[in-house]
Amino acid sequence: MSFSRREFSKRITMAAVAGIASLALVSCGSGSTSEGGSNVVAANLDGAIEKPNLTLGFIKLTDMAPLAIALEKGFFAEEGLNVRLEPQANWKVLLDGVIGGQLDGAHMLAGQPIAATIGYGTQADLIAPLSLDLNGNAITLSNKVWEQIRDDLPEGADGKPVHPISASHLKPVVEQFEAEGRPFNMGMVFPVSTHNYELRYWLAAGGLNPGFYTDGDVTGTVSADVNLSVTPPPQMPATMEAGTIEGYCVGEPWNQQAVFMGIGVPVITDDQIWDDNPEKVFGLREDFAEKYPATTAALLRAIIKAQQWLDADGGANRAEAVEILSRSNYVGADAEVIAASMTGVFTFEPGDTRPAEGFNIFFDKYAGYPYYSDAIWYLTQMRRWGQIAEDKTDAWYFETAEAVYRPDLYLAAANRLVEEGVLEEGDVPETDGFRGPQSGFIDGITYNGRQPNNYLSMFNIGLQQGQRVTASGVTGS
């Protein structure tokens, strides 16, 4: 049994390059696969559990649900694991806990293991063998800002705002702040969070520059029309209520919390920015997976079973999941607040609750499979905003993605569940690790993970080939 990726990496990278050359792609949906490259092969993870007692970290968000359900419904125990779940104060504390070994694994931002591997912020060899969910975030504005833009929004026949709402409606407000000599501040949860990139994507699609990062800088405010700062998720509503920020991008239930507190209005959900976007991952150290391969496989099997339970029968188990998540040792928000986005609906304002069956997807659409193309999207956004300071070749994107995202480990766990009759064969994709080209972005741009540099060239706001960021602005051609 070996976890050395040298030969595996070479084969997958060559398959990706061959796929680009052929461009023989099939359907563009979330579970689409590609032709022209070899499918990913499952790792061989047979053996006895090496480490049965484990501590996993999480942040108080509804998308930690697979971990809570795996514990509460006995899926960890079924796999011979004794797991303790520990909430963490913020994403930095969680990341440090995984790197330092205090946590054996964690509910992580998709960008965290990627950034650590390339040495942005901190250097550590982390992997993501499983994606926890699709979608699940939203952008909320304060009541004050909402009132300033509300009259200009197009309305449907029911008199309610037409969604998705473009960030272009914010431009007059931002310009007014600038004329008054005040920065327009918004919050996100971490510099390499999905929330940061989604908020930046939304703003840029509406013609507002969210700012660039200089080399080694974690503020990202060079040339910014809107300044973005870090706030831990549970503190978002209070920070906005205090007037420190005018809005934020965060996961649930902290957008719904603003609605229930009467202090803000969610204006767009992240599936309206990028339909079926990958959100959180289960992250752990690479050396943990190498030292404890059977334990790693057992963890993944338990989490996959929890994901399946969460999406079973059209969400029939969601009410029970809401009750579990509302407990103080998990998310700790009122069940009513969690249910406002977790049960197939999403509330934008009192009286404006809309169907949102795909807002939280944990198992359907191959939500758990860690696609290389998902990792590459995060890397393109890091480059777009200057967190990756210099141009990289397409091959670099492929190699980096397959060093972090580990579908071979996912398949080892999922295929065993197929053998046991827990999953059906159709529940596990046959793919070389790349989705087909994805549409469903708010700006109409199609993302092809096989062509990262070409994708970056399509944006009006963002770094282009040859450009760098200095304290005085963007330089280069």
Automatic annotation (TrEMBL):
Stored InterPro entries: NrtA/CpmA_ABC-bd_dom (IPR044527)
Localization (cell): Endomembrane system
Keyword Membrane: yes
Pfam families given in the database record: NMT1_2 (PF13379)
GO cellular component: endomembrane system
Main subcellular localisation: membrane
Record flagged with keyword Endoplasmic reticulum: no
Domain of life: Bacteria
Keywords, alphabetical: Cell inner membrane, Cell membrane, Membrane, Transport
PROSITE patterns (alphabetical): PROKAR_LIPOPROTEIN
PANTHER family reported in the protein's UniProt record: ALIPHATIC SULFONATES-BINDING PROTEIN-RELATED, BLL4572 PROTEIN
The name this protein goes by in its record: Nitrate ABC transporter substrate-binding protein
